[in-house]
Batch of 2 targets.
Target 1
Amino acid sequence: MWESDGGLLARVDKTKMPRHVAIIMDGNGRWANCRGLLRNAGHVAGVKTLKNILKTAVNLKLEALTVYAFSTENWKRPHTEVDFLMHLFSDYLEREKQEMHENNVRIKFLGRTEDFAPALQKLMRESIELMKNNTGVKFNVAADYGGQDEIIRAAQKLAYRVKAGELLPEDISTQLFEDELDTFGQPPVDLLIRTGGELRVSNFLLWQAAYAEFWFTDTNWPEFTPEEFIDALVDFGKRSRRFGTLNN
C-alpha cells in the first residue's frame, strides 16, 4: 500500500467520515498564470496533486472518491489545450493504472466516454478491466461529464423502457432513476470540495450531491495538499447533517 502519514490520518474520526467525497479540481490555470507559466504547466502540476489525494483516500479507506476531470463544456476551450488535456489523461492512465491496481483501487469513468478518441477509450476499458475485482476506493473520474446531461440520459433510458412496455410512468421511483445514473451502486455524495476560490458546483453531480456538505477553499488545485484534504474531512465530521429533519 502507498505510504501513509499516520499522524495526519489520525486527525480524522473514522466514525464521522464521509462515504463519498467529490472534488472539483479548479485553479490549474490560475496557479500557472501566477507563476508566469503556460496553463498546461498547471494541468501537469494538478495531476501530481491528484495522485497525492488519491493516496490519502486509499489510506483512509474512503469508500468513494469522484473527481471532475473534464466537463462537457470543456470542449469549448482552445483546441491546443483540449489536445494537451487528452494526452495528459492518457499518460496518467498508462502510467498510474498498475499502481492503482496494486493499491486495490477500482476505477470508473463517468460521462460520455464514447466521445473520446478510440485509443483513449481502449485505455479506459483496459483500466476498468484491470481493477474490476478490486474492493478498495471506488475512484470515479468524471470525463466529458455534465450533471444535467447525466440526468437527461437517465431520463431517456427510463422513457425507452416505458415505451417498450417494461414499466409504467408511475413505477419510476428515486431508486429506479438512480439505477440509471453513471454512479449506479454507489452512495450519494456526502462532501463536495471545490478548490480555486469559486463558489459554485459547475454542473457536477447535481443529483448525487442533493444533500452534500460543501467545502470551498481559495487554494488552487496544484497546491491542494493532503493536509488540507484532511482539514475538509475534519470539518465535515463537526457538521450536523439533518436531511430536512430537526436536531434531536
Target 2
Amino acid sequence: MSSANSNLRHIVLITLSAAIGGFLFGFDSSVINGANGALKTHFNASDYQLAWAVSLALIGAAIGAYFAGRLADMFGRVRCMLAASGLFLVSAIGSGIPFGIPDFIMWRVIGGVGIGVASIIAPIYIAETAPAHLRGRLGSMQQFAIVIGIFVALLSNYVIVRLAGSANNTFFGSFKAWQVMFWVEIIPAALYGIAAWKLPESPRYLVHKGRLEEAKEVLAKIDSEGVDKEIESIHETFKNEKPAKLADLFEMVGGKKRIAPIVWAGLGLAILQQLVGINVIFYYGTMLWQSVGFGESDAFFTSVISSGVNLVMTIVAIMLIDKIGRKPLLLIGSIGMAITLGTLAACFMSANVDGSLPKAAGVIALIAANLYVTFFAATWGPVMWVMLGEMFNNRIRAVAIAICGLAQWTANFIVTWSFPVLTGKDGIGVGPTYMIYTFFAAFSIFFVAKFIKETKGKELEEM
C-alpha cells in the first residue's frame, strides 16, 4: 500500500468519525417529524404548544453553536465532540419518557445544545484536518452525514409506525411507538462518543496551544511531506495574536466600526439557508402531507422519499463541489428553489375547503417538493457548511462560525416555530406561508451574485 493511499484512508477515517456528529444532528432534529402529531394527540396540545415543543430545541442548538467555537478554542475540538455525544445520549433517553410538554421540551433543548455544538465543531475540525484539494468534498461529509441522519430517522419512524400501526399505538409492551422513535438515537450517540475518543486533535488547535510536536505527528499522518512548512504557515497566522473575540469581527471604516463584509456574507448564507423553509419538510413533513389528504402511513412514506432524495443529491453535491465551485452551485440552487417553492405555493393555494388538495395539484405538489429538496441538497445544504468552514481566516474562524451558527439556528427556530402557527386554524394558510419561503429563495439569487466570493482550492491561510 502506498503512503498516499494510507494517508488518504486516514484522512477519510477521521473525517467520517467527526461527521457522526452530523449524523446525530440530522437524526435528532428530524426524529420529531414522526412524533409531533402523536405528541399533540397524547398531550392534547394546541398549535402553539406543538410549535414550542418542536422549535425550542433549536434555541438549545443556537446556544450550543454560539459557545462551541469558544469552547473549542479553550478545550479542543475532540473534547467538545465528547461533550456533544453525552448531550445526545441524555436527550434520547429523556425524550422518550416525558410526563408532559414542559419536561419534553427540556429534554429536546438538551439535545438541541448537542446539535449546536456538533454543527460547529465538525466543519471546524474537518476544515482544519483536510488538505485544500480535498477540503470541499471532505467538508461535504458533514452535510452528507446530516442527510443520512435525517433519512435514518424518518426511515426508522416509518418502520416503527408500520409495525405498530400508528405512532400512538403501543410498541414493545407498554411503550408507545413515538417513544421508541426517540430511543433509537441512543445507539449512534454512544458510537459518536467512542469515535471521538479515538480522534486526533486538530493540528491548528495544537499549534495555537504551542503543542508543536503533537501537531507535527498529526500532520505527518495526513501528509508526510512539507510538515515543517505547514506548521510554520499555521504558526504565522497565530503569532502575536490575541485570542479571537467578537470585536475582531468588526473593522474601522471612516473612523467608525462596522461588521466586516466577510462576516455579513457568512451571516447571509447561514440565515438564508433556513429562511427558504427546508426544515419544514423534515420537521413537519408527515403532518403537512396528512393535512392535505394523505393517510398516516403514506405521509410517513412520503417523508422517507423526500429524505432519500436529499441523501442522493448530497452525494451529487460532494462530487461537484470541487469541480464546479461553491458560488455556481449556490446560484443554481437558489434559482431551482425559487421555481419549485413558487410551484408548491400555487398548489397549496388551490386546496379544497377541507384543506385537501385536488388530485392533480397533489401530484404536482409532491413532485415540486422533491425537486425543491433536490436543488437544496445538491447546493445550499452542503455548500453553506463548507463555506463557513473555509471562508474566514484562522484567527477569527472559530468565533465567526459561532456567530453564523447562532444566526443559522435562530433563523431555523423562527421558521420551525412559525410554521404550525402560520398554517394552523388562526394562521394565513399553507399556500401564503410557502410564498414567504419563495421570496427568500428569490432574494438569495441576488445575495449570492452580489456578496459571495469563490473559495475553491484556496488554502485556509490565504483567507
